[in-house]
Every structure is written in C-alpha cells, then in structure tokens.
Amino acid sequence: MIKDIKLILFLFLLFSNCSIKRQWEKQTNQIDFLTKQVAQLDSLQRQQGELLLELKADLSYRLERTNEKIDYLDAKIEDSEARLIRIAQKLGLRTTQPETVPADTTMLQQATADPEALYNTAYLDFTRGNLDLAIQGFRDYLKLYPDTDLSDNAQYWIGESYFTKQEWQMALIEFEKVEKNYPKGNKLPAALYKIGLCYLNMQIRNKGKEYLNRVIKEFPNSPEADLAKERLATLR
C-alpha cells in the first residue's frame, strides 16, 4: 500500500514537473518573440527619426535658399522699374506701373527647365514614396547640373532612396559618391553616417563603427554625431 502511494506521488511530481517545464518553455518563447518585436519596432522608429531629421534639414536649407532668391529678385525688380521710369522720363512719356502679364508658354517651358524645379520634382517623388522615380529624377538633375548648390543633396537623396528600399549595397555606393564628388557639401556628415549604417546592416560591424566614429570625430557638432553616439551605444 505504501509503495503504491509512493509510486503515485512520484508519478504526480513527474507529470507536474513536465507540465511546469512546458509552461516555462512556452513563456520563454513568448518573451523571446516579444523581445524581437520590440527590437524591430525600435529599429524602425530610429530609422524614421533619422529620415525625418534629414528631411527637416533639407527643407530648412531649401527655404533659406528660396528666401535669398526672393530677396534678390525683389531687388532686381525694383532696379528694373527704376530704370524704366528714368527711360520714360527721358523720352517724355507718362510713367505708369507695369501691368502683370500672364506667363506664356515659353516662360512655362523655362520654369520646367529650371534646375531647382527639376530637383523639387524628384524630391517630391521621394517624399511620396515613389523611390524609383525619385532616383531617376535626381540622376537626371546631376546629368544636367552636376555642380550646383543642390548637387550634393541630389546625390545624397539617391543614396537615401536605395537605403529606404533596404538595398544596402546600392545605397552604400551612392552615399560614397557624396564624399568623393562633394567633400565640402553640407550632406557629407549625413552621408558618412548612412555609410556606417549600411555596413552595419550588411553585418560588417567594424566598418560600420569606423564610419560612425568618423562622424563623431570630424563633425562633432552635427545632429549626425549625436545619432552616431546613440547607435554605437547599442553595439557595445
């Protein structure tokens, strides 16, 4: 009788341990799954934050350029009006304010051929997620205007388009062109930072760390330097 009771207790404990072990394994798997999900969300959020930062910087730069152009055009218009008035006075004609003339077809064609209009079209495609169109538009811009204030930006956004598509090798090639062709451009810190991320995404950690440290050393006051520090902290 006692042996039977011991056997029953043994079997009970055995099955209980098996049940507890299965529950433990199940909970462990659930925790691992949730941990991976959180890591993926953190990575996605970080990438979106980085892209938003670059978009804001680019928009701020373009707004500053636009304001400068507006001031320049205002000054030119005022100067032209003053010249016309002086000419009219010399000819003894009645001075009147020039009427606004609607743009003709030629003017529209000139606007289309304007380098900034071409850049803006490609940039708009990028912000709308039309990445292939954006890449082609920025390439067209660089073919026609390889040496303007926006050329380094155009080259950078080609790399960013490939980066968004998660084509790391192509993105790396295009970002490297920013450093090679526009070493003094305003997009160099961002390009070096993204080169580092490309290497990390390709599991080449040493090169990735090398470029992140370059950003911190060469551009310590840039927003990308702060991002590089944060990313390096996650790799330790």
From TrEMBL:
Keyword DNA repair found: no
Residues annotated as domain Outer membrane lipoprotein BamD-like: 114-236
Name of a matching Pfam family: YfiO
Keywords: Signal, TPR repeat
PROSITE patterns: TPR (PS50005)
TPR repeats: 115-148
Protein name, as recorded: Tol-pal system protein YbgF
